[in-house]
Amino acid sequence: MTGRETLAMDPDTVAQALTVDTVAQALTVDTVAQALTDHGYLPDEGLATAVFLALTLRRPLLLEGEAGVGKTELAKVLAAWTGGELIRLQCYEGIDAAQAVYDWDYARQLLHLRAAEATGETAGKSTDAIEADLYQERFLVKRAVLRAIEPRTGPPPVLLIDEVDRADDEFEAYLLEVLSDFQVTVPELGVFRTEEPPIVILTSNRTRDVHDALKRRCLYHWVEHPGFEREVAIVRLRVPEVSEALARQVAAAVEAMRDLSLYKPPGVAETIDWAAALGRLGVAQLDEQSVARTLGTVLKYREDHQRVEHHGIADLVKQAFDRGLLHG
Fold first, then answer.
1. What are the Cα distances from residue 142, in Å, to 93, 147, 148, 183?
2. Are 218 and 285 in the same domain?
3. How much is the CA Rg of the chain, to the nearest whole Å?
4. Claim to verify: residue 164 and residue 288 sit in the same structural domain
5. For residue range 261-299, what is the model confidence (pLDDT) as tens digits?
6. In the chain, how many H helices and how many E strands?
7. 110 and 83: one domain?
8. Could you list the residue range(s) of the whole structural domain that residue 295 is in?
9. What is the pLDDT of residues 50-91, one digit of tens each?
């Protein structure tokens, strides 16, 4: 089976290829890169290789990098490509198994108990037997992680564990069982496991270091800001209505801003937003007025606005034109 034939598969056929042992023959780094590009995501060779290995080795992929470089977007595109459900777990400080893995529907359990008492079903039952009735799978609330390892027909889901660096150490430790064996232990019911693991993408903005034990269970890739030419290509892919000239000027201006030691340097997401905003306003090329009016689409902190203004918007526009023409 050639790479081009793989890309032409419908989602169900792609999903089947992703869940059989012949996946290494069905996919290549080039076909993965092309498939992502066809779905609106332009990866570099390193990232395409990391995704290929994650799919073929069936390993979770940990993506680190600054906010806005496209880590979360990759998981969305993978789900669109494979046809699998995107199951997103947004991490935050204090998240625990009840929010991420499973919980019990206490309201339904209570209603069931009261109904059983009213009909006399509990008469003569031991306390253990009554408790056993309450802890059945029908009362189990399956959160993102448990849903991702449920047996299912069709494409494997894409489990996105977003901003895992915001979670606590205890939650990281809980994830180890899932990432090692793709199983979850529910003490009252036993072990839930899957033979066909989900595609797992973890992201981190590196607000703190993720523990080594978690990293050992994952493949790893640091997502850089794209180079100039690739950022131009990304803008052209995601905002096709803007001209080549404006796309180059926007990419060059963003590149210049990243060299100004900003509190929050703009990511690719902001570059795309800025290009889209300029296109919506009918701007054909950057000038001081258009930059000043739309700076809020690319910079989100007042201090960063002040730094750019101190640097000089006119100088920024000149840099954008010079850089755009240099490689045009």
1. 21, 6, 9, 13
2. no
3. 25
4. no
5. 899 999 999 999 999 999 999 999 999 999 999 999 999
6. 18, 9
7. no
8. 228-322
9. 999 999 999 999 999 998 899 999 999 999 999 999 999 999
Residues 32 and 87 in one domain: yes
pTM of the model: 0.84
Straight-line distance from the first to the last Cα atom of the chain, in angstroms, rounded to the nearest whole number: 39
Sequence-separated (6 or more) residues with CB below 8 Å from residue 3: 27, 28, 30, 31, 34
- Identify whether 77 is part of a domain: yes
Going along 25-101, which residue ranges are E strands?
61-64, 86-90
Domain co-membership, 174 together with 69:
yes
The structure tokens listed for 218 are 């994952």
Residue type for position 191: V
Same domain for 284 and 214? no
Split into its structural domains, the chain has a count of 3
CA distance 28 to 194: 25
> What does DSSP say about strands 190-193 and 199-204: parallel, antiparallel, or unpaired?
unpaired
Picking from 1, 11, 311, 313, the residue whose alpha carbon sits closest to that of residue 155 is 11
Does some domain include residue 147? no
Angstrom distance (rounded) from CA 248 to CA 252:
6
Which residue in the block uniquely carries the two structure tokens 């089947």?
A: 16
Is residue 167 packed enough to be buried (19+ CB in 10 Å), middle (13-18) or exposed (0-12)? buried
Tokens representing residue 84 in the block:
């699998």
Q: How far is the C-alpha of 99 from the C-alpha of 87, rounded, in Å?
A: 13
- Of 194, 222, 250, which closes a domain? 222
And the tokens for 185?
């232990």
Claim to verify: residue 216 and residue 244 sit in the same structural domain: no
CB contact set of 33 (below 8 Å; sequence gap of 6+) = 43, 45, 48
